[in-house]
Amino acid sequence: MMSEVRFHGRGGQGVVTTSKILANAFARTGQFGASFPMFGFERRGAPVTAFGRFSDKPVKEKTQIYNPNILVVLDPSQKNSPAVFDGLLPGGMLLINDKKNKGDIRHENLRKLAMVDANGIAMEEIGLPIPNTVVVGAFAKMSGLLDIDPVLEALADYFSGKKLDANRVCAQRGFEEVTTVDL
């Protein structure tokens, strides 16, 4: 089965890297993944969208995802943006980087909501509000599509030394600290 994931965030949050790490992690399990970004103005703080397709069969399509079944929002200020929910399929899931959410997110097709304080964890572990590696761990747990081990292994292709160790802690904490609510 193909999972189509749309990632929303802002430049500097690691949105594109998030989708790349997940595609790498899926490949490590013998599955297939494709990751690709969509940029507007490429600058820190500008909205960024990335896409990921993950499947047990080869992924050939590399186009924008118009009807995702999973949404990942790295920028909490975008949580109620109509653009985020555009095209969400019935039974959809949403993972959001948000420590303050009290269940105020609603959409007719949303069935699972997951929250993780990715910015807070990243600040504690790496000293920067870059939530991407926390989010990849939380995605693995929330989606049920991956275990944490291939995610931790995939990080070695993006980080080394102390940065690798710190980002592995971030991913592990995301996996352990994400909370999920069925709607």
UniProtKB/TrEMBL annotation:
Keywords: Oxidoreductase, Pyruvate. Its EC number is 1.2.7.1, 1.2.7.7. It holds the Pfam family POR. The keyword Oxidoreductase applies. It comes from the Bacteria. Gene3D superfamilies: Pyruvate-ferredoxin oxidoreductase, PFOR, domain III. Transmembrane segments: none annotated. One of its GO terms (molecular function) is 3-methyl-2-oxobutanoate dehydrogenase (ferredoxin) activity. This is Pyruvate/ketoisovalerate oxidoreductases common subunit gamma. Residues 11-176 form the Pyruvate/ketoisovalerate oxidoreductase catalytic domain. The lineage of its organism: Bacteria, Pseudomonadati, Thermodesulfobacteriota, Desulfobacteria, Desulfobacterales. The keyword Oxidoreductase applies. It comes from Desulfotignum phosphitoxidans DSM 13687.
